[in-house]
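Subject: for your reference before the review

Hello V.,

The reviewers asked for a structural picture of the protein, and I figured it would be easier to keep everything in one thread rather than splitting it across files. Below is the amino acid sequence we used in the manuscript, unchanged from the supplementary table.
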Amino acid sequence: MMSLLELFVSVDDFCQGFLPFWERKLIEDGTKKRQRAGQLSVSEIMTIIIYFHQSHYRNFKAYYTKHVCQHLRGEFPNLVSYERFVILMPSVLGPLSAYLQSLYGRCHGLSFIDSTALLVCDNHRIHTHKVFAEVAQRGKGSLVLWLQATSGHQ
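And here is what came back from the structure prediction:
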């Protein structure tokens, strides 16, 4: 786990190179009209979001109000209210995704995937469920197959 300072330096270094390109592209295609600086920089917002995922907090509001606002005000002197921060979060989705993508290592032919079965709905609602009607299939997850194999049931 990175310290807050190491994380910010990594995020800020990435943003220094990525944001000019990103903002130029947004202005060219008409998505963004102007470039106004906010109280918090994109690097600061991204750092707070990533640091939340490294914390023991399960609830972002509790993390922001009880940890960031109380203990990290020295590191982020221009903090905004929780409500304003939540409004700012979608604006960093593109740079945050690009930063996380830049951290991926090169695949050398061996990958691990999570094969946990996702329960979509209760069995009595299966026929009315339409969210993934074209792609969803009924089946068994690897855990169910393993349990059947170890208990002798087919």
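For the response letter, the relevant points are probably these. The chain has six helices and no strands. The mean pLDDT is 82.

Happy to draft the paragraph if you're swamped.

O.
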